Amino acid sequence: MTSHTADTARPRRFRQVRALIASDLYRYAGAIGTRPFLRHFLFTPGFKYSTVMRMCGYLKQRKALKWTLYPPFKFLLLHYRYKYGIAIPEYTRIGPGFFINRFGNIMVNGDAVIGANCNITHGAMLGQMNRGPKAGSPILGDDVFLAAGCKVIGRIHLGDRAAVGANAVVTKDVPEDGVVGGIPAKLLSTNGSEGYINRRVNPDISKGFRPA
């Protein structure tokens, strides 16, 4: 788990959650501001979900807001879960620049860790394994790409810039720049996620949102 993900994925200050939402928006629009925010919040299911998800995670940690604003935001998050088929709990640790490509049947266990500038595509799953040496949930580095229908199961480490092919089932660690595919997934190349991760943001948002 990268340190910036641990520090920023559960923001306790509004400026932090605002920077996270801005970093997500930049991945979609290549810009930040009121107009791109409204356009993507209204018409892009992935960004809409991640925005409400991040707000839920922030509100739940604030004592004054946990019993006031958090419940309606949580209700809205559940509504979007069933409407768009995206199930990512608000307490999941997710770094800046999260991009949900399409929607439908996206399942992420809440104990998973997702680094900065990661892409997740429809049908992808980060699942928990309950027993054995790989018991636990996946840990993703930065700039990781998950293609449609792939499954990453157990305490699997995906290195920075790793890429998982469509419908692959990953049950072993993937090195940095590794490209895996198949059932079970095998290493196919070391070309990484280059070309699939666009409009990257700086993983360190301690000073606010910044493009990479």
Description:
There is one protein chain. This protein has helices spanning 3-8, 14-29, 34-43, 45-61, 63-66, 70-84, and strands at residues 86-87, 93-94, 99-101, 106-108, 113-114, 119-121, 125-127, 139-140, 145-146, 151-153, 157-158, 163-164, 169-170, 179-181, 186-189. It has 212 residues and is an alpha/beta fold. The strands form four sheets. A six-stranded mixed beta sheet has the order 3-6-9-12-14-15. Strands 1-4-7-10-13 form a five-stranded parallel beta sheet. The radius of gyration is 16 Å and the shape is globular. The model has no long low-confidence stretch (mean pLDDT 95).
Principal-axis shape equals globular
What integer is the average pLDDT?
95
What order do the helices and strands follow? HHHHHHEEEEEEEEEEEEEEE
- End-to-end distance, in Å? 20 Å
The fraction of residues assigned to DSSP E strands is 15-25%
What structural class should be given to the helix and strand makeup?
alpha/beta
- By DSSP (H or I, 4+ residues per run), the number of helices equals 6
Largest sheet, in brief, is: 6 strands, mixed
Give the number of DSSP strands. Answer: 15
